[in-house]
């Protein structure tokens, strides 16, 4: 296939995936909501979960986004150096977002900063956001796509702590964010925590943490233990579904980390809402693809 046809094929696939993932939640999120819904005891919490599932059913039947805020599209791209479209990915993702905006349709969420106008296409200067990882000697391309809504973006926060703050300082920072801004996203929440050497590395990891499948824990035993402690701590706040109180505030807490400078602890929090619209797709060099986030996906 010539390059033009390959570009068209990948653009079309990504546009359809974006459209689909704005309507159908990924399998892990849906299952987690079912699990949490079945464990809530108050009739209000149970009713809210029923409403969420009714919303999912109608989104599918009517082919409409499951939340009105379809977000700014963000992509985490892990691309092999031998993938044939490595040079075309950014521009084709932009085109895919424009197409999905019409097809789905998606709400127009890209406002040019300072010029203050909405482009009407969900693309603009630097949007959609594309984060890159280059994989040597691979001919595959893996993409996590995420709809970053206004509500779930608001609780994001990052800072660098003094080294003496230690892991207690990290815990305090996360809990402060969750008790002050947490409700700007619709619970139950997925909480991403980045612990790294500076403010920008921690911030990026905290968003990356939201792409990890629910139920998977950090491969570092101590970080995994901290995920559990933070999850219990945030649950005890009692946000419940939609912040209307309940036993469970979160779908999970994911920590991602790097090594750090000994005199600094960069920490960041990023929050996904119950309508956590992420998708994960892997392309081979001929653009055959596997969607791992939605087993039933037909696009
Ligand atoms: S926080 Fe999530 S569910 Fe709530 S309005 Fe925003 S995108 Fe929708």
Automatic annotation (TrEMBL):
Please give the NCBIfam families that the UniProt record associates with this protein.
Answer: PRK08230.1, ttdA_fumA_fumB
Q: What is the lineage of its organism?
A: Bacteria, Fusobacteriati, Fusobacteriota, Fusobacteriia, Fusobacteriales
Please list the reactions this protein catalyses.
Answer: (2R,3R)-tartrate = oxaloacetate + H2O
Query: Do you know which PANTHER family this protein is assigned to?
Result: FUMARATE HYDRATASE-RELATED (PTHR30389), L(+)-TARTRATE DEHYDRATASE SUBUNIT ALPHA (PTHR30389:SF19)
Top-level taxon: Bacteria
Query: Which terms are listed as keywords in the entry?
Result: 4Fe-4S, Iron, Iron-sulfur, Lyase, Metal-binding
Q: What is its EC number?
A: 4.2.1.32
Q: Name one Pfam family in it.
A: Fumerase
Q: How does it assemble?
A: Tetramer of two alpha and two beta subunits.
The UniProt family comment states:
Belongs to the class-I fumarase family.
Q: Which gene encodes it?
A: ttdA
Enzyme class comes to lyase
Cofactor field: iron-sulfur cluster
Q: Which part of the chain is the Fe-S hydro-lyase tartrate dehydratase alpha-type catalytic domain?
A: 12-281
What this protein is called in its record is L(+)-tartrate dehydratase subunit alpha
InterPro entries registered for this protein in UniProt: Class-I_Fumarase/Tartrate_DH, Fe-S_hydro-lyase_TtdA-typ_cat
């Amino acid at each position: 296939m010539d390059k033009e046809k390959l570009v068209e094929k990948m653009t079309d696939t990504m546009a359809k995936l974006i459209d689909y993932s704005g309507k159908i939640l990924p399998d892990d999120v849906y299952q987690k909501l079912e699990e949490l819904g079945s464990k809530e005891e108050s009739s209000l919490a149970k009713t809210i979960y029923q409403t969420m599932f009714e919303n999912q059913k109608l989104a599918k039947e009517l082919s409409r986004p499951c939340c009105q805020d379809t977000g700014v599209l963000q992509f985490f791209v892990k691309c092999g150096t031998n993938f044939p479209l490595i040079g075309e990915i950014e521009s084709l993702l932009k085109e895919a977002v424009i197409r999905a905006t019409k097809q789905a349709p998606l709400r127009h969420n890209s406002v040019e900063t300072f010029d203050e106008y909405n482009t009407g296409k969900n693309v603009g200067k630097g949007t959609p956001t594309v984060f890159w990882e280059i994989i040597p000697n691979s001919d595959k391309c893996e993409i996590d796509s995420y709809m970053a809504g206004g509500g779930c973006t608001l609780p994001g926060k990052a800072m660098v702590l003094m080294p003496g703050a230690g892991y207690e300082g990290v815990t305090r920072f996360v809990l402060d964010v969750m008790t002050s801004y947490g409700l700007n996203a619709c619970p139950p929440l997925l909480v991403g925590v980045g612990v790294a050497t500076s403010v920008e590395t921690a911030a990026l990891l905290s968003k990356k943490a939201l792409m990890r499948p629910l139920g998977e824990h950090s491969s570092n035993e101590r970080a995994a233990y901290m995920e559990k402690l933070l999850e219990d701590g945030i649950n005890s706040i009692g946000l419940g579904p939609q912040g209307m109180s309940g036993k469970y505030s979160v779908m999970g807490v994911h920590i991602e980390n790097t090594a750090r400078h000994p005199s600094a602890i960069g920490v960041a929090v990023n929050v996904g809402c119950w309508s956590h619209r992420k998708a994960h797709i892997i392309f081979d060099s001929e653009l055959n693809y596997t969607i791992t986030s939605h087993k039933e996906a037909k696009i």
